[in-house]
Specification:
By secondary structure, this protein is mainly beta. Helices cover 3% and strands 41% of the residues. The protein has 1 helix and 13 strands; from the N terminus they run ββββαβββββββββ. It has one helix at residues 35-40, and strands at 4-8, 15-19, 22-24, 27-29, 49-56, 60-66, 74-80, 82-89, 100-106, 112-115, 119-125, 129-136, 145-147. A hairpin with a 6-residue loop joins β1 and β2. The longest helix is centred in the N-terminal third of the chain and has 6 residues, at 35-40. The radius of gyration is 16 Å and the shape is globular. 33% of the residues are buried. The model has no long low-confidence stretch (mean pLDDT 96).
C-alpha cells in the first residue's frame, strides 16, 4: 500500500502528490519519496540532484526550463512557508502546449508537485519567507538554461496577489514570450 495519493491534473503527466502523514503528540513522520510507489503511479524518473532555495514574499522565480536533450523533470515541495507553483507545457505538438497547472504548496499542506520533462517551471512566494526543495532527474546544465516570460499573456498565468512588489532576477525579467522562443 502506497504512502502517497497521486492526483492527476488537467495536463497529462503532471501530478499533485499528497504524502500520508503519521502524527502524534511528538510531531509527525512522512515519506517524501519512494521510487516504487512513484513508478507504480506513472512516475518512473530516477532523481540525480536535490536543490533548495530560500526566498522572501513576492519573489517570483521562473519560468525556467532546460533545452532539448537536457530537460529536467522535477519533484518540488515547500518545507517552510507557502508558494504558488506553476508548470507550463512546452512539449511541441502537445494538445496542451502553452497551458499551465498551478498549485499552492506549503509546509502546512505538505503537497508535492511533479513536473515532467519539457515543462517550464516557476513559483511565487506567498508567505513572509519560504524554503523550497526539489529533486531533478537530470543535472543542471547552465549552458542549456532557458526561460519564458513569467507574465506571457498567451499563457495567462493567474498569479496570486501578494500585496508587495514582485521581485525577479535580472535574468527572469528578460525571458522571451513562448511564441518568440527559437526551438532549434
Amino acid at each position: 500500500m502506497s504512502n502517497f495519493i497521486f492526483h492527476k491534473t488537467a495536463i497529462d503527466d503532471v501530478f499533485i502528490i499528497e504524502p500520508k502523514v503519521f502524527g502524534d503528540d511528538r510531531g509527525y513522520f512522512m515519506e517524501t519519496y519512494h521510487f516504487e510507489d512513484f513508478k507504480a503511479a506513472g512516475i518512473p524518473n530516477v532523481f540525480v540532484q536535490d536543490n533548495q532555495s530560500k526566498s522572501s514574499k513576492g519573489v517570483l522565480r521562473g519560468l525556467h526550463f532546460q533545452t532539448e536533450g537536457f530537460s529536467q523533470a522535477k519533484l518540488v515541495r515547500v518545507i517552510s512557508g507557502e508558494v504558488y507553483d506553476v508548470a507550463v507545457d512546452i512539449r511541441k505538438g502537445s494538445a496542451t502546449f502553452g497551458k499551465y497547472v498551478g498549485v499552492t504548496l506549503s509546509a502546512e499542506n505538505k503537497r508535492q508537485f511533479f513536473i515532467p520533462k519539457h515543462f517550464a517551471h516557476g513559483f511565487l512566494v506567498l508567505s513572509h519567507e519560504a524554503e523550497f526543495v526539489y529533486k531533478c532527474d537530470a543535472l543542471y546544465a547552465p549552458e542549456h538554461d532557458a526561460g519564458i516570460m513569467w507574465n506571457d499573456p498567451e499563457i495567462g498565468i493567474e498569479w496570486p496577489d501578494v500585496d508587495v512588489p514582485l521581485l525577479l532576477s535580472e535574468k527572469d525579467g528578460k525571458h522571451p514570450r513562448l511564441q518568440d522562443i527559437d526551438w532549434q
